[in-house]
């Protein structure tokens, strides 16, 4: 062994770190022999060291600066019987490596504290030696007593301070029992306050415990907290120093126990605890092989820090990613401990990859001898980075290879960060040092670099929204106390930036410099997006300067690549700039390709430029994207380049063939390679399940802004041709639902005053706009179409195309309720073409049919009907145009005038469509829906359901779930189910429609409000009136806010709400609403308009219930007079008005007039309705009571007998309607003097009600009173005698309300009174 004088720094392989001087003294006392002479300290090292030897090891002893806590506090448990003076040794157990920092972490959203710190395990050499020592202890026991005795023999004066204090001073109190105030000794503490299982230690020999040590930045002096934390962690003791060493110093922690981590803490045991720990350390050192220690890497502090800059002071979020990287590099899985560890971080430019690496490097710097940063964005940069690193580390004239070799041979831990590994054509493994040493972090945009990872791979997405908001507010220097008040507007800024890290930082810098306010930034972004994204802060600049420059790095890689797929990738990027950024279906391109072939082959010789169809011009424009396809004749299924393909496929004479001669297949391989090239640079992401592409909002903006104006116009036209061709003939398929958002986004890119507009461009735009209008065109979509440059000089010489465009624009004006603009445009076209074409020309038919539709939608129904009827009489009307006219007339007849005639017309249309069109054709589905709606309004529910079930079944196949066409049919089907009594099924279906609309429509959407209106009516009709009224109140409130007072939908909802109020007895509120509706309608619609007389009808009924009989008779008389002229004899609305007026006459005592009206109704219903129809029975019942009131008992008997006979068959014995009819039949018998018949009938009622009703039930009491009256009549000798005068009715609904009619109404669901609601549905 070398003499102490000859020892150098490298000869000391083991260090002992003590927290207190008393601990250092104990360790020094265990040295074998004398202390060694000190060594000259290294520059900047202020620590004081003691050198010496224990067994075969030269050791150096250091002590922390004065003020540390030292020693440890025990946490006694059933598993660990720890006493004062015992020794605790850190040993991996469970999820912990021997030491856990229990106060380091974060509080989550649930309010619970989560530890995020993870400390290293002790070195394997120490753990193996520890295991060997434990084995010896099991066999022969510990040598601690002998070592302590030798220490005291060597240093006798230490016995007083370091000797055993005596077991009588080892006292553990209950956790909840605090130290009594006074001296630090526990003389005043109650010795009985001890745990039940506590047993004093009889021997003074220390015991050794192995397991988890809990470390923190604070002293543990609270018994309950001690027990809780110890139980949670499985900890044996608490201390304060170990956590600061474990990740930076390969070590084992040995602690002597001096107190129980409670308020009874004192220093009496401190010396002995230090001596015990020192004794164990000496014993352990005797089991550590010197040669194994020599093999270990020295525990140096970080010596090499070659990192370009520090992490940003504004760094926010990414805590999970940072923790994951640190954990994988510093605490790898067991099988990777002896291998080079590589972690790959992938993400788009500016997302924060480099910033994460800077943060990780700073956090774990002291765990590595060297941290090195190399920019590998190019071969030259990589070479320069390695050269600079070698020179900094003292290598003479280093090359990249020499530096990598130097790192591979280093015995120390090093971290190498390879930044900007973005080039898809570079194999970055060439930059890795060989061998199994070191750690590497690789940042890249290329997903293929994942193959280099062996300990971890993380694909970065944008920042979490809350993190992005925090980052923005930090960079704008908003005081943290004000963050909450700025959160909403900051969220808007973050949203427009897509939570892109670099963009958020630069936005904050822009705002912080006073160039705009936080509130104004979103508006500035819309107006000056390119300028803002090219903004470069003056301080703390990013590597590439601005956001767009970051993305240009990716484009540069594509432009410099010689690979063919990258050329297509650039073309694909230009296409993606003009469509929506999410879920772009890759199948677009193959569909467009196939349509291009069809256009070239099937185009006829007639001048196609007279129509709005796509032509060869659009195919040639498509070549801007497709011409990049490879010219590989040898590949099976391949094809020539697109431009050559066009030249070769132009036959001299176009003819139609049953089979296309184009055998060429679409080159899916090249397209897939292009997608992969963009994805490899994180420009796009690919969903392999749905085969769609997605691009970040800022990359999407950059892809367009980077194009020159001429290049942008060319790309815009090419994109439109691809979209239009991919949709040709396919708008009825589910594919349309995938493209709707992309068509909208594309159309938004067209300025109204574009200079590149031509007729061919209009053809393309028209086709795309037409696809939007195939389903229900929303108001925003209508606004969008009106902003397109569709009105162009080139249309003046192309009448057919001009009319197509005109009709589309008129439709948009109608959707926006700009009826005057629509009429002006139509009249202008009609005037222009009247001089060119005769009345029977197809163009003139189109214009006049569109004018009729405008008149109908703008509520000029009579004018529309007159125009349509004139068109229908024209002998040269084409069959297709005839179907359009019939649909319009059918709708108006069924809604406003002759319902049956309307149905006949709609049935004819459906027959035409079913004979000519496929089941999935939208024209056929729409006409079927219209016919079903007409059936519904005539209460022919079964017919409506038969059609609607088929329409909905087909709709589910061809529409997406939220399609308005599908939802409208589903809602009508639900209402039809309710109409025929399948209430639960119907309401569930309407509720489903509401649920879907809630996810896709705004609360004030007309479609949503219409469904809510109908659902409310369904609830009211089925007895859930309160729920229905609440919904109608919401509808009315929104419509008052969003539409004018005379709007038909607003009036319909106010009408329905007024009727509902009357129904629940809130008659005053109901009358107020209905009077308002009637007042508006008096000034806005004709006197004989159905909506108006329906409102008059309901207001009259409300007056009747409010006992305003004269007002009711006046209104209802007016309604009946109008309806006798306008409506068919058996129209439901007309019959209902007659019925209500009859009630008013009865209430006014004019029974004969009531009988006259009710007789008319009964005669019609005998023909129109089934014998057992509830409405017909109610009318018979009402007429019978009118006859009773008029003293015509025999006629009442005749009617009531018919009702009772039918109800005996149809209804249960105890049905209230049946009992009520029997009751009044008994009354009629009694009034007619047929007392025995009266007794027989009312006795049957009394017997049933006695078994089913309570004794005080009003109905039962009335029946019993009637029976008593009949019995008295018999006793008075009136049997079978005619009374001559009608008896005084106990309750006459004709005079005192309608409580008894509810029995009949409950049996019918929708009767005369509620049929008005069904009829008025058309208003909504």
Automatic annotation (TrEMBL):
Alphabetized Pfam families for the sequence: NB-ARC, PNP_UDP_1, TPR_10, TPR_12
Highest taxon listed in the record's lineage: Eukaryota
Residue spans crossing the bilayer: none
Coiled coil feature spans: none
GO molecular function ontology, one term from the record: catalytic activity
One of the GO biological process terms: nucleoside metabolic process
Domain called AAA+ ATPase: residue spans: 339-482
InterPro entries found in the cross-reference section: AAA+_ATPase, NB-ARC, NLR-like, Nucleoside_phosphorylase_d, Nucleoside_phosphorylase_sf, P-loop_NTPase, TPR-like_helical_dom_sf, TPR_rpt
Protein name: AAA+ ATPase domain-containing protein
